Please model this.
Amino acid sequence: MNKAGLKGVRFHDLRHTGNTLAAIAGATLPELKERMGHASDRAAMIYLHATDERHSEIADILSTMAKAELKGK
Model:
């Protein structure tokens, strides 16, 4: 990595970033497993932590929708 001017960056760092970005882009658990060559769900679940923020956004939107529906009745 030093030859590429990426001092202090390990191959694993690039792999983790790539798979995290794939998870953010919507890659499913089976897709992540295939990309990484992993057989276990546990290993691939590490990369899905990036989707936690999206789950919060979805929950907020659903909450707003529910409140609007309740006000309309």
Summary: The first helix runs from residue 11 to 24. The helical segments are 11-24, 29-36, 41-45, 52-72. The CA atoms of residues 2 and 8 lie 8 Å apart.
